[in-house]
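hey all, quick one before standup. I had two proteins in the batch that finished overnight and I want to keep them in one place so we stop losing track of which output belongs to which input. First protein below, input sequence then structure tokens straight from the run.
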Amino acid sequence: MPGRRLPPLGALRAFEAAARLQSFKRAAEELSVTPTAISHQIRALEEQIGVRLFERQTRRVALTAAAERLYPVLRKGFDAFAEAIAELAVRSQRRALTLSATLSFTAKWLVPRVASFRQACPDLDLRLHASDDPVDLHAGVADAAIRYGRGPYPGLIAERLIENRFAPVCSPRLALTQPGDLRGQALLHSEWRHPTLDTPSWRAWCERAGLDGIDVEAGLRFTDESHAIQSAIAGHGVALLSLALVADDLAAGTLVQPFGPVLEGYPHWFVYREGELSDEVAALRDWLRMQAEFTGAG
């Protein structure tokens, strides 16, 4: 495809300004040059395209028929340039925030709510960093993170976000009504990456329920908690899960909590670097708090 053969941009700008303002002097003021420079630019343009563009009069200039045809095209073009550049300038001023959380928390709690963040904080762009390994916030991998555990975290400010309570959940198709119904059902296990945390387990739950005769080590095991949730929804067995994490599934009726008891877990914390609570991070924290309160998980 042959390249465009266009007059110099400066000459086109001079013509567009003079045609719009109908004055070489006012065009010169707008473009911060002298009227003589405007006149030279337009004369060079006329010579290049071979047509006269202005009728020079005593106090003003008038467009020729050729100029009347050329001017609207250039005006639309320069308007489009200005609009695109203004849009890029606005985008460059937007702040992007990165929030890190575990794979399951990102998939089951954050992603379903992320649309409301755009409504609450239209000037901020949110990037979700999903990883079961804690990120180093001081290295700049993320601006903030959500962590499950005891807390506190050295060098970080940790604020409680969600209280976790664990209970058996399953598909309503299993029609379980009492703890004894677990006999004969497959137990679904999530294998925690950080075994140093004393997390709720089927063994602890059965001891609290006073239930014996169940092999608490048998069943299906998942390295990703969200996979255990999907398996429970599919009716493959009963999972011991955070009620906050499956709140949407319980509300939708795809999962049920057929019985207790309920075990207490560690909180989910909102964490960020000490002394670095920017307005953007504060806005993210406030939105997360609102979402936690709205779902009854705070």
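OK second protein, same deal, sequence then tokens:
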Amino acid sequence: MSATDSNAKPQDNDSGMAAKDPAKRRRALLIVVAVFVLAAVIWVLLWLFVFSTREKTDNAYVGGNQVAISAQVPGTVVAILADDTQRVEAGQVLVKLDNTDADVRLQQASSALAQAVRQVRQQTDSASSADAQVARAKVDLKKAQADLARRQPLIAEQAEAPEVVQHLRDGVDQAQAALDAAQAQAQAAHAAIEGTVVTNNPAVEQARANFRAAWIAAQRNSIYAPVTGYVAQRSVQLGNSVQPGQQLMTVVPLHDLWVDANFKENQLRHIRIGQPAKIESDVYGGSVEFHGKVIGLGAGTGSVFSLLPAQNATGNWIKVIQRVPVRIALDDKELDQHPLRVGLSTEVTVDITNDKGAMMAPQGSGQPIAQTDVYEQMTSKADVEAEKIIKANVRRGDAD
């Protein structure tokens, strides 16, 4: 082999490699382009079918009613029957106050009610006695008139002295005056009881109302739980002198809870009343998913209702994206299986596929959103106790 041939081979190899490198580069470029195109397609599909159909925020917290328990009458605490974290039922006694003074006033009101019933009975008897006096006066008048009529013809025959006849006439006038006085006395006696029986007499009704007030005041020395829930923020201690309206503890019902999700203002465009939502709470680490629905949007941003609202008219103004609370109702059955606590952090995802609903909540139905009958039961028991006192002091037949 000559030197010329040996030099020719390397040149052929170099030209072949040079021919192959552009093809590799084109294939690599196509692969990169294909990856970017595929990523773009995937992103578009995700946006169309996932991201554009939901709004998501982790600025969301569990909310609930916090029922403040306060005293209704002044007094000194003698017993505390519930403590923080304990469950209490509606109508359960939470705190007891010293009821010495209230018991005295209740006994006075009870005696006054019994006395009122007996006074009405006495007035009824007096009216009956007055009626008897009227009947007697009528008999006396009739007798006097009969005597006068019998002696009147004897004057014409001069068989009777004029003084006797005049005396008879005076007797008739006296009998008539006695009848008029008896009728007036009977009317006065009937004025206090006319149109009523013992149980609905005004005096008895007034005494009954005073007894009810004293009975309820005595019962208010026992402070009841108006709802079923869990005790929190107990501040009352034995021996405390409490005043009406003073908060002693809080009862939190953990059954009817909601989530306040604070969405950015640019996320509210498609959020509507009734849209379904999924909620994950940090307390369960994402292993439990709660389901709810949007029931309302706040009437303003959080900054407006804050303790110190932002002064946006100042010279050093900086635009900050505001958030609006969106209230989401939770499923009570899911709460029973996986309890939540007020204030827990959550992550909320609202399905905005159907955005044809209303943005503003409708007018309320007028029905109470929360209600308790604990205090109504107290009033009913007061009526029962008053009826017992009345029946014990009324005669059979007087109440009809």
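Flagging for whoever picks this up: Residues 109 and 211 are 5 Å apart (CA to CA). The mean pLDDT is 83.
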